[in-house]
Amino acid sequence: MVQLVRGERPLINQSENAKKKIEAKSISFGYEKAEILKEINLDVKAGEFLVLMGPSGCGKSTFLRLLAGLETPTKGEILIDGVSSTVSIPDCGVVFQDYSLFPWLSAEDNIALAIKQKLKEKKKKKEIRQIADEYLQLVQLGHAIGKYPGQMSGGMKQRAAIARALAFGSELLLMDEPFGALDPVTRSNLQDLLLQISRDQNRTIVFVTHDVDEAIYLADRIVIFTLGTEGAITTSIDVPFQKPRNRKKLFEKNEFSNFRENVFNIMNQGLLKNMEKKETMDSFGDGI
Q1: CB 29 within 8 A of CB 74
Q2: Which of 263, 271, 166, 273 is nearest to 221 (CA)?
Q3: What CA–CA distance (Å, rounded) separates 109 from 47?
Q4: Percent of the chain clearing pLDDT 70 (strictly above)
Q5: CA 40 and chain centroid, separation
Q6: pLDDT value at position 10?
């Protein structure tokens, strides 16, 4: 049975002595002449909830794919638990924007397949299905265990993908806008569930969103990606609010409003600087 027990959790230790789950060292990546990421350096502590933000096309999803070992950096190195992602495929659960469910498998079978791959015959078929069903219940999909992706709405498919990533059992979760297709009530419930899993199971989570309120509510730290003329630039901000957080009380605080405005300002400054650089280049033809 999936056990989730509530408890207090201090702010993540960001000191140099804290264990590093992820080390991204001078990461560059691009396609042909288009450089998407250039010289990105980022460490993620074990148990940290890191949120990536920034405009569409700035490299957030690409960076997530690099962390998952689905793409290879053109330069630099990514270490997961001290092991290069080019040497060994990282042990991580991933939620993609497109859900990536097998259309010929039911919701239950999609999750059971992921569990089988992870456990490698260590549990019986009945036990695996029980685990799959429990995670579907967690994401409020208990009624859709036998449904196929073609029979599910976008929000249902997204929840099935989240259940699969959680059931995979990895200490590292990589999530690309996992709540984007959900209604506000379900979204809030799953935000709270994810925070509880992060806290109680000490999972490290790297999470992409465009929603500033969601980012502040979930994150220990926010990293903002900004489009640059030679690839993305990143700015890291620690979220100063203690966990667990009460949504209503947090959103009513003046400190929340001020911090929210600060995050928006950093994002807007990056966009304005990029627009100014583009205008300067355009005024000189090719900018050479």
Answers
A1: yes
A2: 263
A3: 29
A4: 85
A5: 17
A6: 43
Per residue in 160-192, pLDDT (tens digit) is 999 999 988 889 999 999 998 889 998 999 999
227: closest CA among 51, 34, 67?
A: 34
The 8-class DSSP code of residue 59 comes to S
How far, in Å, are 40, 112, 230 from residue 33 at the CA level? 18, 41, 10
| 87 three-state secondary structure | coil
For 42, the token pair is 């980022």
DSSP E strands, the chain: 20-31, 34-45, 49-53, 75-80, 83-84, 92-95, 172-176, 204-208, 221-226, 233-238
State the Cα–Cα distance between residues 99 and 260, nearest whole angstrom.
29
pLDDT digits 0-9 by tens, 82-141: 999 888 888 899 998 888 899 999 999 999 998 888 877 677 888 899 999 999 999 989
b/e map of 194-233 (b: 16 or more CB within 10 Å)? bbbbbbebebbbbbbbebbebbbbbbbbbbbbbbbeebbb
Sheet holding 34-45, edge to edge: 34-45, 20-31, 75-80, 83-84
Show Cβ contacts of residue 194 under 8 Å, excluding neighbours closer than 6 positions. Answer: 205, 218
Query: Which of 111, 102, 105, 159 is closest to 131 using CA atoms?
Result: 111
CB 247 within 8 Å of CB 216:
no
Helix or strand or coil: residue 32?
A: coil
| Position 2 confidence tier, pLDDT thresholds 50, 70, 90 | very low
Portions of the chain given CATH number 3.40.50.300: 20-91+173-283
Of 42 and 227, the structure prediction assigns the larger pLDDT to 42
| Higher-scoring residue by pLDDT: 51, 96 | 51
20-91+173-283, what's its fold? Rossmann fold (3.40.50)
